[in-house]
Amino acid sequence: MKKRDFKVVLIGDSGVGKSTFVSSLINENLNKQTNIEQYQPVQLPPEMFNNPECNTTLIDTRCKANQIPEQVKIADIILLMYSIDNNDSCERLQKFWLKELKEKELKQPIIIVGNKLDLMDLKEDRDYCRIFKVIKELVKDFSQVEIGIECSSIKFQGVLDVINSAQRSYLYPLAPLYNIVNKAITEGFKKALTRIFRICDRDGDGVWSDQELEQFQKKVFKRHLDQNDIAGIKDMIEEELKDGSNKKKFISLQGFMALQKRGIELMKIQICWTILRFFHYQDDLTLDESLFQDEIIFDEEAGQTVELSEIALQQLQSIFEQQGQILTQSQFDNIFYPVMYQTSFPLLQQYHPQQQNITLTLWLSLWNAFSFFNYKDAYKLINYIGIDIKMSEAFIEKNKKDSWSSVQKITERQVFHFAIITKNKKKILEDQFNNLSPRITTINSKTYVISIYDELQAKQQIEKRRLSVVDFLIIERSCDFQTAQLIPITFFDENIQFWALIQKLVHILHSQPYGYSELQIKQLKQNDSFPIILFSSGIAILVSLITGGYYYYFRYKTFKKSK
């Protein structure tokens, strides 16, 4: 693990021993007594602790009575100290400190530190029952409280354990994964585990076989599982579930979640975070954005588009079929359960014709439409729902539209965009669309997206962008909109039913001359000649260089006489 810098801020009432705690750490490191300048940040030597990857800065604080120190704002972990021998100090934890921290909406993990252990009778509460009783009451109202620990700054008893606990809380935070009060894993952790489970469910049957469990173990922990290990894991899951739902022949998603819950309760939270970070999760349980920084190189200015590859479509189909042959709304939502952000994925109501159930055709059509407008957003969503695929494998570049030869390949595409440009009928058309634009339909297994623009929008979003935005323009006759782009154009005909018009345009788009005017075709054919000229010129230059080279070789090379 790479080095991580973090700040531990020590707070508490005056007299609880904060400065003594800091001094004891420094003196232990220097192996001698020394005067420490109070309230200055102290860089703790990494080799003193169990997590040398942590560059730990400890900050002592002082403040006026009933005031929260300003330094808590920069803290990664807060150590809230009280005196074990002082009941008033203990009561102040809840009545003032935690109450004020909660009101300030600070989100950092809090560790309760009971100091002055040397003043207590160690024969009583040897097993830290005392601190457990304190924590048990606090976690009910303050979710940021993670653990409690006792120490003696004077005797240097448990002091290193306090910092080790702070480092563990920073490296492996509990709050995002587990609710101490409810003794249950969080919704965010369930979402992440669902995605991970889907990725490792290689055959897509909704459960893990022994082989899939072993592959998961090798992949994440680089460790082999034998049959005894696998049996032990299954027994642990059965003990946690107590309902027989996790059959001995496989591990279910619920069983996988139960296993992680048991791990946390056995203080093995590091294992959970090892899994999460292997699958690129950050501390807030969102995926690392660096996963989505790649780009597909394609010529947008020439009308080239990007579509989902056959591999991506097959995997989307597999996720669909795990739910059944037809999706209910509930099953549809279940597929998107692992997503940890607000997505702009098309609404089902945008599909035409309206259907009560979600068919495979509709499912793939929505994905095709989504990818057409923003493949990066589509790729991010594909990752979140549990498809582990490289961007270069998920998408393919389609034909350009800047020459007649490339236009003739348009029938190879799967997604097309029709734009309606209107001046007076936008409200009427939007009503037909139920105010949901764009609308999406499937005709002969291909996806068509229909959008409505007024004249100003058309000039801003179509004319000033790129050729690939639109495949066919449908213009209301009263519009003044004109375009110099080589896009097929027709006029809106009020005498033809709207969806009948779309069917007609689909036929035109797939039949020569694909809706282009004679003038547009002439210009497209002229564009074809430029690459030919450039290619011919390149050949001529290459031939010239080669022949010139041979002339030089034979003209000036001295031949050796044969013996």
Comma- or semicolon-separated keywords:
6-stranded mixed β-sheet, alpha/beta, mitochondrion, disordered C terminus, repeat, 5 domains, hydrolase, 42% helix, Recoverin, domain 1, mitochondrion outer membrane, GTP binding, 563 residues, Rossmann fold
Characterize the structure shown.
- Keywords: Calcium, GTP-binding, Hydrolase, Membrane, Metal-binding, Mitochondrion, Mitochondrion outer membrane, Nucleotide-binding, Repeat, Transmembrane, Transmembrane helix.
- One of its GO terms (biological process) is small GTPase-mediated signal transduction.
- This is EF hand associated type-2 domain-containing protein.
- Belongs to the mitochondrial Rho GTPase family.
- It is found in: Mitochondrion outer membrane.
- With 563 residues, the chain is of the alpha/beta class.
- It folds into five domains: 4-171, 3-Layer(aba) Sandwich (Rossmann fold); 184-286, Orthogonal Bundle (Recoverin, domain 1), CATH 1.10.238.10; 305-402, no CATH class; 405-518, Rossmann fold (3-Layer(aba) Sandwich), CATH 3.40.50; 519-558.
- 42% of the residues lie in helices and 14% in strands.
- It contains 19 helices and 16 strands.
- The strands form four sheets. It has a six-stranded mixed sheet with strand order 2-3-1-4-5-6, sandwiched between helices.
- Helix 7 (227-241) crosses helix 8 (253-265), helix 8 crosses helix 9 (269-278) and helix 12 (360-373) crosses helix 13 (375-384).
- The longest helix has 39 residues, at 518-556.
- It starts with a strand and ends in a 7-residue tail after the last helix.
- The relative contact order is 0.06.
- The model is unreliable at 532-536 and 549-563 (pLDDT under 50).
